[in-house]
Design goal:
Elements lengths: L30 E2 L8 E3 L2 E13 L9 E8 L4 E3 L4 E4 L3 E8 L6 E4 L11 E4 L4 E7 L4 E8 L17 E7 L8 E10 L12 E6 L10 E4 L4 E7 L5 E5 L4 E7 L4 E3 L7 E2 L1 E4 L4 E6 L5 E7 L34 E7 L14 E14 L2 E8 L18 E4 L4 E7 L7 E4 L15 E2 L2 E2 L8 E6 L5 E7 L3 H4 L5 E7 L10 E7 L8 E3 L8 E3 L5 E7 L6 E7 L2 E2 L1 E7 L2 E2 L7 E3 L1 E4 L4 E6 L5 E9 L6 E9 L1
Parallel strand pairs: 1-5, 3-7, 6-12, 13-16, 15-24, 25-28, 27-34, 35-38, 37-47
Antiparallel strand pairs: 2-3, 3-4, 4-5, 7-10, 8-9, 8-11, 11-12, 13-14, 16-22, 17-21, 17-23, 18-19, 18-20, 18-22, 23-24, 25-26, 28-32, 29-33, 30-31, 33-34, 35-36, 38-45, 39-40, 39-44, 39-46, 41-42, 41-43, 41-45, 46-47
Length: 622
């Protein structure tokens, strides 16, 4: 393929050296890079860095667990690393980087080693057994990355196997002393199955944060009130809706690796879930205001399942949690422990809490041969039949500032847990079996026939959801999800509001999606001249969902009102084209007003699915 030639020729110092073949031997272990140490040597205004490409053995789970052989970069004289060495420099630095390709039969093509921002994607090619030296100024402060390929793949999202781990963070700090922060790089490795070998090789898909899959990812230890700032880089072939339990975070900047957009303070989005596309970057900040155990994770069910590692199996039981491997999660999960300040007083039990009895039940053959799971709110003392379920579950309408006590009764034949997605609450109620809690008091999976009481007080009005947080590949896709709406005190949900919840059509996911539980959703009825709030919820476990309100195929306009339940400040509550791409776990509220009786369409699609699908929901105003 053809690669672009650098336009910044004055900063390129080509040096090609022929290298003899080194001694053969087994690949050395690849080191895990926690991105705490900036690579290279900074002297005056110049960073000197020597990078080498080689082949090593990678241990994405335990250091003594199973491994795979992959290509990786490392500093000369040090082990290869995953992710690749962190390049971090202050604004105004000149970088002098030596790239050595020790492979005998593959050309290394490196993207991202150039001045930022960049209109295009200049590359550096290093032939087998040669070395090149490049020199360039760092450019504008921001969160960037660099990546390489030996297979000629044109984008970071096309790499899947041997060269998928070549790449790392490139951070340019503003002048002055940078604030304490952390850098996290998401990568993945995929190898297809092979039925021609004995025993049959099953497909393998590894997803990691800074080189490790949960529960071997780093656990962050924070203290109540800490100011936390993170840089996140998606150097994988997948999109990832990244979700923080229990708290909102502010997004300082977003980018695509070539440029980074820094938001003014009034324009910084507030989120609990943020979709990151392949090659995307994000810098974010938040402050833990309640102690306990929390997680930050991708909200695609597969990406946190046992399938996303070399050691896990889909049959693992969450009831077997031992605190080291809670919930049988794997892949893109990072644990966070927030310690209370010394002398802090425990939160008192909320008085006069509204009691709610939530049943978790199943019905055979709801999705063909597969059962459906669903939530039911028990009314009165008599429990409904065990096979009575609703998909999605009943909309739970709570009031801001009014405590609730939800008794979750598990009528399934397997353990479960329920997460109150987006709600700021105390850790014991958060709903992650084997993890949520404080100190030694950790939530156990809700065993069949058992119950769990979640107590919390919603602090803000907005659009949220509740869903299973156990064996999500089955329980979430089978129907354990529902809207959760928090209203202002004393006010019921506005009858002019319209909830649009999109989910997967059962555990197999072969039949497209559901809108409000139906593959043939009823029309959305509006009143001409009336302002309606559309409450959009994406809880599809597998796909990015694109919402478009259109006449024919031309998007109309709507006013943004809220993101993930948080009302937008005036500067962000703008009128914009009625088109929004979302990841699982994201909610968004928009104001729609059709001035006269009309018929338009809410187009709901999964354009990037393996089997793309589209649903057209009529929107009628009368």
């Amino acid at each position: 393929m053809t690669h672009r030639v650098r336009s910044s020729a004055a900063w390129l110092m080509p040096l090609i050296l022929c290298l003899g073949a080194g001694p053969a031997g087994p690949p050395a272990p690849i080191a895990t890079n926690d991105n705490r140490r900036s690579a290279g040597t900074l002297h005056a205004d110049t960073l000197t860095l020597n990078l080498e490409l080689g082949v090593g053995r990678w241990y994405p789970d335990a250091d003594d667990g199973p491994s795979v052989e992959v290509q990786a970069l490392g500093e000369a004289g040090r082990p290869l690393e995953i992710p690749s060495p962190l390049i971090r420099v202050p604004e105004g630095t000149i970088l002098r980087i030596t790239l050595r390709n020790t492979l005998a039969d593959s050309t290394l093509v490196v993207h991202g080693l150039h001045t930022r921002p960049a209109a295009g994607d200049d590359t550096v090619q290093v032939a087998p057994g040669t070395t090149r030296v490049i020199r360039f100024p760092a450019g504008r402060p921001g969160t960037y990355h660099y990546w390489g390929t030996t297979s000629g793949r044109p984008s970071v999202g096309d790499r899947l196997d041997d060269d998928s781990q070549i790449g790392g963070a490139f951070i340019v700090d503003p002048r002055g002393t940078p604030s304490p922060d952390r850098v996290f790089v998401i990568t993945n490795w995929f190898r297809d199955g092979d039925s021609s070998v004995t025993p049959r090789r099953e497909p393998q898909d590894i997803m990691v944060i800074n080189g490790k899959a949960w529960p071997h990812t780093e656990t962050l230890n924070l203290t109540l009130g800490d100011s936390v700032r993170w840089h996140w880089i998606n150097s994988s072939a997948n999109s990832h809706p990244m979700h923080l339990h229990g708290f909102y975070f502010s997004i300082d900047s977003r980018g695509d690796g070539r440029e980074d957009t820094l938001y003014a303070p009034a324009m910084r989005p507030l989120a609990v879930t943020q979709l990151m596309l392949p090659g995307g970057t994000m810098s974010m900040r938040w402050a833990p205001t309640r102690p306990g155990n929390w997680i930050f994770h991708c909200h695609f069910a597969f990406h946190v399942s046992p399938f996303a590692s070399l050691t896990g199996t889909a049959e693992e039981s969450i009831g077997a949690s031992d605190g080291h491997h809670p919930h049988s999660m794997s892949g893109l999960v990072m644990g966070i422990r927030v310690a209370p300040r010394p002398g802090a007083v425990a939160t008192a039990r909320p008085p006069d809490a509204r009691p709610i009895r939530l049943l978790v039940q199943s019905r055979p053959h709801r999705f063909g041969e597969a059962p459906g799971y669903g939530f039911v709110i028990q009314q009165g003392r008599t429990a409904p039949p065990r096979d009575s379920i609703a998909i999605p579950g009943p909309t739970l309408v709570l009031e801001r500032g009014r405590p609730v006590r939800v008794t979750v009764v598990n009528n399934l034949a397997e353990p479960t847990g329920v997460h109150w997605h987006g709600i700021e609450l105390e850790s014991p109620a958060d709903g992650v079996p084997g993890w949520s809690g404080i100190g030694s008091s950790v939530m156990r999976p809700i065993a069949p026939g058992d119950s769990f009481v979640a107590e919390f007080t919603p602090p803000r009005a907005g659009t949220f959801m509740y869903h299973a947080h156990a064996n999500e590949l089955l329980q979430l896709t089978a129907g354990l999800y529902a809207p959760l709406i928090v209203t202002e005190p004393g006010k019921p949900m506005d009858p002019d509001d319209r909830i649009v919840l999109v989910s997967l059509n059962g555990p197999s996911g072969t039949s497209g999606g559901l809108v409000n539980g139906s593959a043939t959703p009823a029309p959305i009825e509006l009143v001409a001249g009336t302002r309606h709030r559309l409450r959009l919820i994406n809880i599809d476990a597998d796909e990015r969902i694109l919402f478009t309100l259109a006449r024919d195929t031309t998007p109309l306009a709507w006013r943004a009102l809220a993101k993930d339940g948080a009302e937008l400040p005036a500067a962000q509550a703008t009128i914009r084209p009625a088109r929004l791409l979302t990841g699982p776990g994201e909610t968004a509220d928009f104001e729609v007003q059709l001035p006269r009786p009309d018929s338009v369409t809410l187009i709901i699609s999964a354009p990037y699915a393996t089997r793309p699908w589209t649903m057209r929901v009529p929107v009628r105003s009368r």
